[in-house]
TrEMBL record:
It comes from the Bacteria. This is protein acetyllysine N-acetyltransferase. The active site is at 113 (proton acceptor). It comes from Thermoactinomyces daqus. One of its GO terms (molecular function) is metal ion binding.
Length: 252
């Protein structure tokens, strides 16, 4: 753990990569574990371009939006925000679409898979509030359109946003240390960022409750709660006062 903390403190360009496991400690389900969102479901039937406009698509993403509204960032999110504010963390690249990194105050967030802060028309791009499904608004209200509305996320079979992906690659290429948290590292091209970090000589640290296929590339691997480890890191670097400040403002 001491070497882990020293790597973070001594890094010149620390980049964080996060996946669904980052938010499970906020109460959100992940995707691929037992009981995850894809357990017993075929994601291509409810989360692909072909599914847009089906009842299953609308019901699934209405459920996801309602779930997000019931939860909030956890202490791990706030540690990353603190690391950024202190100039240690330079960028955060995430697979997550929950927006919790921004809610906790992190500024330099690259959402590789999109977000669910609002909905958009699948044809004309008109924006709608995230709660539109709650009001039974499932189709564009423009008389000349009437196409289904959807979250601006990357569905299965869709390409990544090129600007977001290019920015993510550039950050990893500049990094000397990459901190990977809460991702199974089974979904490409995101998992390829860890391989890129290895190729460019970055130190790689992985925090995940279970092993990943790319653990062998890491300099340090910890199979433990992300919030627990990040809290220990923050306390070691910043002392105990940083956590007391969060509690005073009811952020955790």
């Amino acid at each position: 753990m001491k070497e882990f903390i020293e790597l973070i403190q001594n890094s010149n360009h620390l980049v964080a990569l996060t996946g669904a496991g980052m938010s499970t400690e906020s109460g959100l389900p992940d995707f691929r574990s037992q009981g995850g969102l894809w357990c017993g479901r075929d994601p291509y039937e409810i989360a692909s371009p072909q599914a847009i406009g089906t009842d299953d698509f609308f019901e699934f993403y209405q459920m996801r939006i309602e779930d997000l509204l019931k939860h909030k960032p956890n202490i791990g999110h706030y540690v990353l925000t603190k690391l950024e504010k202190e100039g240690i963390l330079k960028a955060l690249l995430t697979q997550n679409i929950d927006g919790f990194h921004q809610l906790s105050g992190t500024q330099r967030v690259i959402e590789v898979h999109g977000h669910m802060r609002y909905l958009v028309c699948s044809r004309c791009g008109k924006e709608y509030p995230a709660t539109a499904y709650r009001q039974c608004t499932y189709y564009c209200t423009d008389e000349n359109c009437k196409a289904p509305i959807r979250p601006p996320i990357v569905l299965f079979g869709e390409p990544l946003d090129s600007d977001a992906w290019d920015s993510a690659v550039q950050e990893v290429e500049q990094a000397d240390t990459v901190l990977v948290m809460g991702t199974s590292l089974q979904v490409y091209p995101f998992a390829g960022l860890v391989e890129l970090a290895h190729e460019t000589g970055s130190k790689i640290m992985i925090i995940n409750k279970t092993s990943t296929p790319l653990d062998y590339l890491a300099d340090h691997v910890i199979h433990e709660s992300i919030s627990k480890i990040l809290s220990e890191i923050a306390t070691s670097i910043f002392g105990n006062d940083w956590f007391a400040h969060l509690k005073e403002h009811n952020q955790v």
